[in-house]
Amino acid sequence: MIGQTYPEYTAAAERQEAHLINDVPRWPNGAISQREAYAELWADFVYMAPPFLAYYAVATADVDLLKQAAQQCLLYRNVLSTDLGPWHHIIGPSSQDLGLWSTGNGWAAAGMARVLATMMKSPFAEATKNEQNALIADIKAIIDGAIKLDTDSSGLLRNYLNDTTWFGEISGTAMLTAALYRMAVLAPWTFGTKYTDWANKKVQVVDNCINNTTGIVAPAINPLWWGDRTPFTTGSPEGQSFVVLMHAAHRDWSWKGGRK
Asked: Which domains does the chain have, with CATH numbers?
């Protein structure tokens, strides 16, 4: 949007799109790498690049690029998805992590929701129906799996969803809850009361983790190392922001007629 007023921002977006499409390494199936030096796929990527490509595609009236934004999500799904529903965190030669990291799954589900929303609200909504349906199914698989694995006594999702040796933490819980509320607005025929009742419980659990004096939400996973076994209690920047995203999504769902 800012590029409509300041052309230097448009030029920067053009460079970024060209770099992603033409220069960044790719996995054998065509998925754009999370890493610049070698091909490696991280669930986190789905929140970072595909939404940008979708926004850029609509701004430039490029339906093929819009479809490619969704296709990148699906290519990541093809490599990272598991029979349990949630995705592996990282597949690749350097940082491989086959765990079902809750925050990574939050990144993936929320990123696909952003691409979906862009498609649905764009002039190309009819032309991208197949991609929209595929994204809805993939988001549902992640969230269904997270709900099934929601068994920690804290009421929070574990840092690694299916590993009972891990503590429940607020970052992945808040981000997956935020994604669910977005989907309850975008695809209410799929994400109905069963899902929003679960999300409402997660909001209550996360809110109970807020320190009323400092505003810090804890326990979180260390934002600089997902394998840290010590709960992070001094304020994770991404964890704090995920709680804001969760409440913004809950607000918008409520405004659309959801139960407050």
From this structure: 2-255 (1.50.10.10)
Taking CB atoms within 8 Å and a gap of at least 24, the contacts of 63-66 are: 63/124, 63/127, 63/128, 65/17, 66/118, 66/119, 66/122, 66/124, 66/128
Cα gap 130→44, rounded to integer Å: 24
Q: Is the dihedral of CA 226, 232, 234, 236 positive or negative?
A: positive
Main-chain dihedrals φ then ψ at residue 247, nearest 5 degrees: -70, -35
- Overall pTM > 0.85: yes
61 pLDDT higher than 70:
yes
Q: Which of 160, 181, 183, 180 is nearest to 172 (CA)?
A: 160
139-197 pLDDT, tens digit per residue, is: 999 999 999 999 999 999 999 999 999 999 999 999 999 999 999 999 999 999 999 99
- As to burial, measured by CB atoms within 10 angstroms (0-12 exposed, 13-18 middle, 19+ buried), residue 224 is exposed
Q: Residue 210 pLDDT more than 70?
A: yes
What per-residue confidence (pLDDT) applies to 1? 60
Residue 3 reports pLDDT greater than 70 = no
Distance, in Å, from the CA atom of 50 to the CA atom of 34, rounded to the nearest integer, reads 11
- Residue 260: the pLDDT is 44
